[in-house]
Structures are given as structure tokens and as C-alpha cells.
Design brief:
Shape: elongated
Oligomer: single chain
Distance between the termini: 54 Å
Helix content: under 10%
Number of domains: 2
Strand content: 25-35%
Order of helices and strands: HEEEEEEEHEEEEEEEEEEH
Number of strands: 17
Strand order of the largest sheet: 14-13-17-11-12-16-15
Length: 299
């Protein structure tokens, strides 16, 4: 529980008060290059100096809103989800203007290690009523019309993994996430067990040895329905899959399951991902440092 000053609460939660959110983004290698705000169209653009060292900033008009309490909102203090429309963005640099969209920026990892400064503005006198700082964590969730970001309070840096990106030969992406770019459904197959135990099963899977290593198996029928395990080893000879943590019941003949291809997160696998003869080169999404010397190297 966190307490706030009653006078501040009275100003912030007054249903008659028109307020706006001014978002100032600070990226890893640039500051305040993308800003959004909620403003009534009939008021025109809002010029606001938020004392961030960049001088007065102009915010484009977007729909107005009243106090957050008017619609049953609450004051976020630890973590929140920010949903942004997939708007078109014009970027100007030394090479001239270039048009892109928010989703493309997200896929190119522009929001990695990004910091968001949130200002709530009183539209009657353009005074800043509150200010908070947030860190973007995890990978954005991207759809055709929207980009969703998970935010943690800047105080969370005390308990967050540091560094956020690990300097290692293996890829930092999670397989099939937005940064990886591969479609899970493309590499998922459905089959049924012939025999099984709590940690193994045999099936009619005909993919090459190790194709499903480190992939996920999910049972869709039988007593283990809904169980999701990570495949430790896949052998082609008997379509055998094994995993380390036992499921609750022995896998019975006829139990159906889905299983997707796994990835050891190496450069070679990323450059030729998929079944033999149908590999795709996904190395453009590789997010590791494959040329780091092994520990045994003598410099």
C-alpha cells in the first residue's frame, strides 16, 4: 500500500478536471525522439516544457480524457501495460526523412532498454501534476493495429536482471517470440502416442533425429491433457520423445499431443531452421554474439 498527499489526490482525481498524459521516450542511444499525448483537438497542439533538458516540446492533438478515476481507473505504481496504436512515424536523420510505423520500430528492438517518462498535465494551466519513470521489460506484443508494452517502475531496477541483454554466443531471443520472428504454427505437428511412460513416449513422428530437441510438447487428450513439457531428446527411429520432469500419469496409447521444433539458440541453427530440405535462413533475427571466443581460447 502506498499513500499519496490528499491535496495531490484531490487535484488528480477530480472528475471535472481535464488532464493529459505526456509520454517522453528515452532510448538507449537517443533521447526524447518519440512523444505522444492526449489532447482535445479543439485546443490544437500542446507546447510543454517538462524541464528535461530538451526545451519546449510540441505534442500532437489526440482524444481528450477526464480524470482517470471517472472511468474506474487506478493509479499504477509498480507495473502496467501500455497499449499504443500502430501509428505511422516519420523519422528524420542525416539521410533524409523515412516513413515507418511503431510495429516496425518494435520489431527492430528500438524499445530495448527504453525508459518512459510520464507527465500528467493540467490542461487548464498546462501545469505538470505528476511525473513517473518506467522501464520497458520483455518483448512487445504486436498486432496489426496495436503495440503493447510491459512497463515496470524504475524502482524495479533494484531487482531486475542486469544486464538486460546477456553478452553470450547463444541467442537472447525466446523461440517464436516477436523478435525471433518464426511462426510456431509452421513448425508444430500433431500426433498420438503408441507407447509411453511418465517421461517418454513413442509415436509415428518421422522427422530427423533431434528435430524436436528443446521444443515443447503439449498433451491434447488423455489423463495428461493440458500438460506442457520441454522435450529433452528426440530420436527418429521410434519417434521417441523424452523429457526430464515426469507428467502426472503414464502416457497411454492413443493419447494425442502437439509438439513444435526446438532450437539450441546457435547461429548455425538460426541460419538453417526447419526440417531437412525446407530450411529457412532466420539469421537476420539472431540476437546473440556467435563470434565470442570460447573460454578455452588463449589470447
Amino acid at each position: 500500500m502506498k499513500d499519496i498527499d490528499p491535496r495531490f489526490a484531490s487535484a488528480l482525481f477530480d472528475e471535472r478536471r481535464e488532464i493529459a498524459d505526456a509520454f517522453v521516450w528515452r532510448f538507449a542511444y537517443a533521447e526524447a525522439v518519440f512523444r505522444t499525448v492526449d489532447i482535445s483537438p479543439d485546443r490544437g497542439s500542446l507546447t510543454l516544457d517538462v524541464a528535461d533538458g530538451d526545451g519546449p516540446q510540441v505534442f500532437e492533438p489526440l482524444p481528450v480524457r477526464r480524470s482517470p478515476m471517472q472511468t474506474g481507473g487506478d493509479l499504477q505504481v509498480d507495473e502496467m501495460t501500455l497499449e499504443l496504436p500502430n501509428v505511422e512515424i516519420l523519422i528524420s536523420d542525416a539521410g533524409g526523412p523515412e516513413q515507418t510505423c511503431l510495429a516496425d520500430l518494435s520489431l527492430n528492438r528500438v524499445f530495448d532498454n527504453c525508459e518512459l517518462w510520464v507527465y500528467q498535465v493540467n490542461l487548464r494551466n498546462l501545469g505538470v501534476m505528476t511525473h513517473s519513470r518506467w522501464d520497458v521489460v520483455g518483448a512487445p506484443t504486436i498486432s496489426r493495429s496495436e503495440v503493447s508494452l510491459q512497463l515496470h517502475s524504475a524502482f524495479g531496477r533494484c531487482v531486475r536482471r542486469c544486464p538486460n541483454t546477456v553478452i553470450q554466443a547463444g541467442c537472447n531471443n525466446a523461440l517464436y517470440d516477436a523478435f525471433c520472428g518464426l511462426n510456431r504454427a509452421t513448425y508444430t505437428v500433431t500426433s498420438s502416442a503408441i507407447t509411453g511412460t511418465r517421461t517418454t513416449l513413442t509415436s509415428a513422428l518421422a522427422q530427423a533425429d533431434n528435430y524436436f530437441d528443446l521444443g515443447q510438447i503439449e498433451f491434447t487428450s488423455g489423463r495428461n491433457i493440458g500438460a506442457v513439457m520441454t522435450v529433452g531428446k528426440h530420436l527418429n527411429a521410434s519417434g521417441r520423445l523424452s523429457w526430464n520432469i515426469p507428467v502426472r500419469h503414464d502416457v497411454a496409447p492413443g493419447d494425442r499431443f502437439t509438439v513444435c521444433a526446438g532450437c539450441p539458440k546457435t547461429w548455425a541453427k538460426c541460419a538453417a531452421f526447419g526440417p531437412p530440405g525446407f530450411e529457412v535462413d532466420n539469421s537476420g533475427h539472431y540476437r546473440g554474439f556467435p563470434n565470442i571466443p570460447v573460454p578455452e581460447s588463449i589470447l
